[in-house]
Structures are given as C-alpha cells and as structure tokens.
Amino acid sequence: MTDEDAAVEVVRLYIEALVARDYDNAAKLYNGETADELRENAEQSGTKYIRFIATGKPVLEPDYGPRVYSVPYAYEIETSKGERVVAGRRDKVLFAKPGIEKELDLKLHDRMLVRPVVNQPNRWIIVIDH
C-alpha cells in the first residue's frame, strides 16, 4: 500500500467507525480524541453519522512534516433537526439524496491531515480535521 493509499484508508475507516458508532476504533484512528470524547461530541450535537460517501485525492503537505497528507472527505449525517446533509462541504449545505456522489466537488470539502505515528511508520492516524 502506498502512503497515499494509507492516508485515504485511514479517513475511510474513521468515518465508517463513526457510522457504526464504534467510538473505540474511531479513537484509535484520530490522535488526541478518546472514545468517550467522540461519543459525547456526537450525543451533544445530536448528529447521527449515516454513511461514508467519498474521499478525494490525497495531497502531500510538507509544511506539516514528512509523509503528511490532506485528504478531502464527504459523509452523510442526520442533523438534530432531522435533515440529511453531506458533511464536509465548506461553502454551502448539500442535502443528501440518491446519486449525490456524482455531484460532489471534493476540492470544496474539508480535509483531514493524516500521517504515520512517530516511531511506528506503518501505523497511520488523523491529526487534524480542517
């Protein structure tokens, strides 16, 4: 697996863990957040993670260090108001609907920074969601 593949896979696995409400595994993939913190954040916001939609092409981010990639993402959530939207879009709310994947421009979405764990170069984690 290439570094780019590993970065994308970590983001996908993290989102899929949130969808499954598997906060223990999600916390293993996200540096600095415990399972309890992830669970509490989801419960307090009233957000329900519905499904993983897509990740985009990872981009090497050398300003953050060697082997650090930013990966754009999209996933479907249900808000506390019961609306189903695509999470990660910066400029507007996209309502989830069948076929939304074909309409996404992931260049306009938030990104997760992913890198190998220090002293464990084959283990990757998310360090920032921005």
- For the record, the CATH class is Alpha Beta
Total strands: the figure is 6
CATH architecture: Roll
The largest sheet, given as strand count, sense and whether it forms a barrel, is: 6 strands, antiparallel
Radius of gyration: 14 Å
- The percent range for helix content is 25-40%
Helix run count? 3
Order of helices and strands: HHHEEEEEE
* Overall mean confidence score, pLDDT: 91
Return the domain count.
1
Brief digest:
The chain is built from 3 helices and 6 strands; from the N terminus they run αααββββββ.
Secondary-structure map with pairings?
Layout: H1 3-19, H2 23-29, H3 35-45, E1 48-55, E2 59-60, E3 69-78, E4 84-87, E5 111-117, E6 120-129
Antiparallel strand pairs: 1-3, 2-3, 3-4, 3-5, 5-6
Overall description:
- It is a single chain.
- With 130 residues, this protein is α+β, with helices and mostly antiparallel strands.
- It has one domain (3-129): Nuclear Transport Factor 2, Chain: A.
- The chain has 3 helices and 6 strands, in the order αααββββββ.
- Strands 1, 2, 3, 4, 5 and 6 form a 6-stranded antiparallel sheet that branches.
- α2 packs across α3 (35-45).
- The longest helix is centred in the first third of the chain and has 17 residues, at 3-19.
- The mean pLDDT is 91.
